[in-house]
Specification:
Length: 118
Amino acid sequence: MRTKLIVLSGLPGSGKSMVAERLSAALSLPVVSIDPIEAAMWRAGIPPAMTGIAAYEVARAAAEENVRLGISIVVDAVNPVEAAREMWRSLAREQGARLRGCSSSNASVPIRSFTGSA
C-alpha cells in the first residue's frame, strides 16, 4: 500500500485539528501540526513574526522523514498561500506518496479537497 500524506488546511477554528485528531485515532497515524511547532519556537524565544516559514519547514521535515520511512502521516496547517500547499504536493511527488488534502475557509463550511481527487 502506498504511503499517504494527508494535509488538512483551513483558517483557525475551521475544524482541521479536530479532523486531524480523528483521522490519527481512526487510522493510527502520526500528526504533524504547525501550532505546537510555533508554540515551541515562541517558548525558545523566537519572536512570533519570525516563526511562520520556519514552522512550515520543520513540519515538512518531520512529514518527509515519516513518509520516507513508509509511514503515512496527517498534517494540520493553515496553509494560507499557494506556496505552502505546493510544498506538500511537491513532497508527495518527491517521495512517491499519495496526497490527500482537504481545506475549509471557516467552521461553517465542510472541508473540501484541494488535491483534485477524493
